[in-house]
Every structure is written in C-alpha cells, then in structure tokens.
Amino acid sequence: MIALGADHGGYAIKEAVKAYLQREGIPYKDFGTNSEESVDYAIYAARVAHSIVSGECEKGILCCGTGIGISMAANKVKGIRAAVCTNEFCAEMTRRHNDANVLAMGGRVIDEAMAVKLADIFLHTPFDGGRHARRVGQITALENGEDLK
Fold it and tell me: Could you read off the pLDDT of 31-76 as tens digits, one per residue?
C-alpha cells in the first residue's frame, strides 16, 4: 500500500499520482489534503510517515510546493527516509542507494507528467543493498543518537 499526502501546493501533482496508481492497480491510501485550500504540510507528512513506520503502508509519496518542507517534516519521524526528487536520476538513485521510503516532490517545481514519471521510477526501483545497506544502517544509527566512528 502506498501512502499519499500533500498540502495545497502539492495537491495537483498528488492527484495526478493518485490517478496513475488507480490506472496501474496499485493500492494506496490518500491522507489528504483534498483541495488547494491552504493547509499546513507537517500534518500530512506526519500522517504518511506514521502509516509507514506502523507497517500500514510500504512507501509514501508526499507533495508540497517544493517538496522540501514536507520532506523535512517527514524525516523527523524515526524510520523515515524521505528524499526530494526533481528528475529521473534522483528518483532512481534514492531507491537504489538510499532505500528511501518516501518520495517528496514539489508542485511548483515539476509538472504533473514528471510527478507521475518520478513516482513510477520510485515505486519500481529496488534497493541495491550491499555497501549501500551499511550506509543506510549508519543513517539509522544517527537517528538513534549513536556516534559514527
């Protein structure tokens, strides 16, 4: 299950991604927002992030005006690795090398077609593991307050 969330600035691209998920038969849960009326992005970031760490959803897609604020908020939740992506290479590499579990995008940065393309890449690219698993483990260690040596 894919968790979706957006503020007003990311609403249009969230809706485009939602339509793509419906066409592809990919299960999702939409945590809102449901219009372009101004809302606070941290609320939607938290809903999506908590659905992932609880196991309700496998991955998430978050959208705001730039993708930056909503990713920063999501990354405050232990266990979340949210990455802002604006191109295909970043969407692929954040999965392959960082095992990101949340894709963040900006509705004022990319258009709906690019949002769908990035979502497709993000959802279908596996984590490479290997040396990258050690590095992702270091992110988790930092999150747990451990000192890296």
Answer: 999 999 999 999 999 999 999 999 999 999 999 999 999 999 999 9
Q: Is 132 a catalytic residue?
A: no
Q: Among this protein's residues, is 124 annotated catalytic?
A: no
Whole-prediction pTM value? 0.97
Q: Are 124 and 96 in contact (CB under 8 A)?
A: no
**Which member of 57, 63, 64, 85 is catalytic?**
64
| C-alpha to C-alpha distances, 132 to 34, 126, 140, nearest whole angstrom | 37, 12, 13
Question: Measuring CA to CA, how many Å separate 140 from each of 12, 77, 91, 96, 101?
Answer: 33, 12, 21, 17, 13
pLDDT over 90 at 149, yes or no: no
CB 62 within 8 A of CB 31: no
Cβ-contact 60, 51 below 8 angstroms: yes
Q: Which of 8, 90, 97, 132 is catalytic?
A: 97
In the chain the first and final C-alpha atoms are separated, in Å, by 37
